[in-house]
Amino acid sequence: MRAFLPIALLALAGCTSDSTFGGFLPGGEPDRLAIAEIESAEAEESGEVLRLALGRRRASAVLIQQQGTRRMWRAPGGVVVATDGARVVGTAGLPQMVMATRFDGPDPLTDPRALLTRTAETRRLVDVSGASRDPASMRFGLSFDCRLRAAETEDGYILVEERCRVPGLSPVVNRFWAERESGAVGYAEQWIGPGIGPLALDFQPAE
After folding, report:
1. What superkingdom heads the lineage (predicted)?
2. Domain that includes residue 27, residue range
3. What is the per-residue pLDDT across 20-47, written as a single tens digit (0 to 9) for each?
């Protein structure tokens, strides 16, 4: 079983003092993505950038750590996203947080082009928490049983759709758009916790 435990996300999310910002979520938690949106102009000029969107909020996160296909991105205000390839495997500083993702076997998303000729199934376990990190808001070992299908779009991309069954939750649908020639995912929309909309990620360099 392949595991990724983004423990450092929680520490990074706590590096910014909440008292210096005015944006808050219900319950008194700081609206970190709103903070990131305001301060992202500086991030656009400081290296490799991942653009994020959650609802109407937009922010830019810079690459702060990389080990193979695993990367950690940080936006101003303490929003941190960990990715393995194009897949989100950890988050911090958002209303819901993905604390850990553990894959049972290889991830079919590694080769989107192969999914044009076959469907694939995958299983992973995910730990989540509310922004307050209250033990009552934590859920461990959410089981995702997923099927991935792909099709070519009219504009020449590969659209991979992943549908997952998760006990106790509504069905989860993730979408990934990959380049036909390279198979690299340039854009994605992914589940990042119960009760929150999908997180959109734009991996493509700004023009």
Report:
1. Bacteria
2. 2-202
3. 222 444 454 555 555 555 554 444 555 6
- Contact assessment for residue 76 and residue 36, using Cβ atoms and an 8 Å cutoff: yes
Q: Is 86 part of a structural domain of the chain?
A: yes
207 within some domain: no
- Total structural domains in the chain? 1
Q: What is the pLDDT of residue 15?
A: 41
CATH number for the domain harbouring residue 46: 2.40.360.10
